[in-house]
Fold this sequence. Notes:
- 2 copies of one chain form a homodimer.
- In chain A, the strands form 2 sheets. A 6-stranded parallel sheet of chain A has the order 2-1-3-4-5-11, sandwiched between helices.
- Helices cover 44% and strands 15% of the residues of chain A.
- Chain A is elongated.
- In chain A, helix 1 packs across helix 2, helix 5 packs across helix 13 (305-321) and helix 10 packs across helix 11 (259-271).
- The longest helix of chain A has 17 residues, at 305-321.
- By secondary structure, chain A is an alpha/beta fold.
- At the A-B interface, helix 4, helix 5, strand 2, helix 6 and helix 11 of A face helix 4, helix 5, strand 2, helix 6 and helix 11 of B.
- The first copy, chain A, binds a DNA duplex through residues 4, 17-19, 27-34, 36-37, 39-43, 46, 61-71.
Amino acid sequence: MEGKGLSKGFEHIMRPTIYDVAERAGVSIATVSKVLNNTGNISDRTKKKVIKVMQELGYHPNSLAAALTGKKTFTIGVLVPDIANPFFAEVSRALENYARETGYAIILCSTDYQLEREQYYLDLLMKKQVDGIIIATEPKDLNAFQTLQSRDIPFLMFSIDHLALSSHVVTTDDIRGGYLAGRYLLDKGHRRLAIIAELNRPSGRLRLEGFRRALSDHGIELDQRFIINSISKIEDAKIASQKILHLPERPTAVFATTDLIAVVFMNEARKTNVSVPEDISVIGFDNTIHAEIADPGLTTIAQPIDELARYAIYKLLESIENPQIPSHRIMLTPSLIERESVKDLNGHC
Amino acid sequence: MEGKGLSKGFEHIMRPTIYDVAERAGVSIATVSKVLNNTGNISDRTKKKVIKVMQELGYHPNSLAAALTGKKTFTIGVLVPDIANPFFAEVSRALENYARETGYAIILCSTDYQLEREQYYLDLLMKKQVDGIIIATEPKDLNAFQTLQSRDIPFLMFSIDHLALSSHVVTTDDIRGGYLAGRYLLDKGHRRLAIIAELNRPSGRLRLEGFRRALSDHGIELDQRFIINSISKIEDAKIASQKILHLPERPTAVFATTDLIAVVFMNEARKTNVSVPEDISVIGFDNTIHAEIADPGLTTIAQPIDELARYAIYKLLESIENPQIPSHRIMLTPSLIERESVKDLNGHC
DNA sequence: ACAAATAAGTAAAGCGCTTACCCTTTGTTC
DNA sequence: GAACAAAGGGTAAGCGCTTTACTTATTTGT
């Protein structure tokens, strides 16, 4: 036993180990381990004594060593494209919260939309032996994911989907979201509708699809010229907004597939002396802080972030416990948050 | 050597270890370790062979095991109060970015302003043997930090400071920031100035202090009634804004100590038919996306987030390498981002 | 051509913990 | 009070890697 514990005279620099606790408590390391994990049969008296010593020594078990034997690190990796994007910031927050509740920590990886970083991080997470991975970046390189599959690392696609991958998926029903937006505008009496969509992203296209269906269910075909493409960045959104504002026959309502685009549109409208919602109505998507802070408040489709996160953690942990479970895809329904950016045209007929 | 590697017939479930690589490459594990870390003397031929085998096996070294011997985990913990707050989201992004560049991963912990979570996370991070910790939450419980000190875990306070703690500190010079805001408004000819400040936070009070000094340097005393307290939340900010808007003698300019407050103020002003910047000028602090997206664009004091993050990582790694280095406090100067929310009164004299 | 120097590898001892598996005490039952 | 079962605790073998100390193969100088 001698020689395993604290080197004498170096107490201040060596962190105490299980040997130190054992020695000082006059028990074996097995006993200490058992009180640590509440396993085996240990008398109350011994337990108390050991715990007391741990506190005296300021002992914190080394979870690395534990993981090396126990096989679990209680860490999960989360891959997002951009943590500074309010949507992903909210997502991270929610994921982190549920992870904590179940005793897991999160390694956050922001890929900045770069494929190479995606690879780098996936590699890193594997090296760090995370117990599972949540992926919220659009998969560019299927290879990397196939590696995950083949190495039996549980993972889950969050808020995105890929047909080539048979993994767990937790996502918002974007089609339904788009439908919801369309339906709402129609209900409010709007007939000439435009959309600014992120056509380069699957979710943007799905939202468009839902929107289109809402209209066609109502006997209206979405005019091709009223579909404007834009990525969710301020400059791009400005350009797209101006296109809409200068359309020969201006629509009475616009559906923007992200709140950011919607807010930028509202600003551009104001600059062009077009008032929201008096002259033109706007509806967004995501219900980020932008929607809440905007003036007038932005009516928007809310992704059920908290629910998504809860399911994601739940499903992931489930498949960590039992990798055999066949993969599910869970699609949660978004909901409409009504604020003041859509005018009710019905009173005016 | 036999018996250490892959259990036959279980190749698909056991991840390959250094033993498997060694066996298959016909070398010892020491050799494999050396090519892995590029240490020692290994011939090119052997190196190539080993690398080839690693690829064939899809071998990823277990960094836990490495950390258990090598003493470093290449992981740092980051404690923020709320990852969904745009400022901290940006901070996390920047920190993560610099950490990645230096080969470190980040465990992100969002305390949600709760003391108990702070403790929980600090404990977790110690268990996970992080190499260092960056703390961006205001220290409520000095005890916990003292533990860090006593256990010789390098840590660094980010964008906050505490006089009782002698640790590394990287922060924005809030006083100078407030001064900058005041100076700018004065330069633009404003004399009747108000401030909405987070008086419950040190940074808010320092910004107020700087603002006050700018005025007094100019022979103006900041009127006590023109100092409004508010936390940085929409509802609170609305109330504070209304107080200002209904002041008997309305100020010509307002300094809000966060962008969120500033933007809410702009919205409230608009609702009250007070136009920004025509009737009242506004200047914010932080230069978050809110400022950029606002209409009119919000003139604001930018915290040098990227620089702060760079220094923070740099300093932390430095003290990981060499814990003897005496603690420094680095204060970076904020800068003014000019947009359209402040009117120049000078032309009108 | 041969010792000295250097290059290329290996064996083995941990790192701090978990976990079979084993050995003592006690208490229990008839 | 003999026989047996828990309860309480200890021993020791790893987990996958790094590293020191050491052996053996290959150059190099003269």
